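Side project, low priority. Logging it here so it doesn't get lost.
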Amino acid sequence: MNRLQVPFHAVGAFFFHLVGDMTVYIQGEAGGGVTEIALQRLNVITGTERGNTIQLNLDGVSTSSMNSAQRESVQEMDVQTVYDAYMTSNGSRISDFHGGKATVAIPYTLKAGQMGSGVVVWYVADNGDKTETPTSYNGKEVSFTTTHFSNYVIAYDAERATACPKDATCPISAFMDADATAWYHDGVHWALENGVMTGVSKRHFNPNDNTSRAMVVTMLWRMEGSPSYVGASEYGDVENTDWYGTAVRWADAEGIVTGYHDESGTGKVFNPNGAVTREQLATMLMRYAAVK
C-alpha cells in the first residue's frame, strides 16, 4: 500500500516517485502550460503553502477484494496482480482527472516462460465491464496511461505474447509485394515461419498469383519434413534435379498424385507448371490426410 500527499494547488502537473514500488506521472494544465514538479523517494509530502492536500493511493489488492461482478469478469484471465488506484482530498475520493491523464509505471518481473508482449492491463469497472488499457513493458516496468483511477488488473495473455506484431519483424515483410496487415497474414506467416513456403524469390511472394501443381506437392512434402526419396522420376516432364523433383517422386510413391497419360498414352506426365484446380487440390489434400 502506498500513500503520497502533495499541496492541492500542485495537482495541475506533478511527478510522483514512491518509495514503495511504483511510479506515477500525472500531467495537466497548470498556469496556462504543462509543468512538472519532481517529488522523489518520498512517501508523504505535506502541503505548506495552502491548507488542503491531495493524497494519491495505490493499493495492491487481490481479486477476492473485488466485487462479484468484477471477479466474474476476470475469472478467465491469467491475473498477475490487481491495483486499486485513487486520490483523496479532505477525505473525499477522487478518481476522475477532468481531462487530465496519468501514466502509471509498476515494476513487474516476467515469470518463467512469459514474454513482455503478453503483459496487458485492464480497467475493470464496478459493474464488471472491462476495458483494455494501452500497455508497454520495458523489461522492468509495466506502464499504462489512464484518464481516471479505479481497479486495474495486470494480466498475462499467452496467445498475445506469441502473436505477430505485423511489423518489420514479420517474415512477410521480407517480400516487397506482400502486406503483413492483409487478410492472408496468418496463413502466409505460418507457411513462411515453418518453411512450408519460401516465396518465388527473395523479395517476391506473388500473393495473388496462381499456385502450380509442383508448388502444392512441394508444400505437402515440406510439411512431412522433406523426406528423401531414392529413385528416378516416372514422369516424362519431371527431372530428378528439378527443385520439385524429390517432392513429386515422394508424392507419387505415397499415392498423393498420379499424374496424366502423355499424348502417346504409354507414358506419364505430371504437368508441374500447370495451375492446380480446386478439385485437384481437394483430392491431393484428402490423399495426403490418408497417409498421415
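Brief comment: The first strand starts at residue 2 and ends at 7.
Revisit when time allows.
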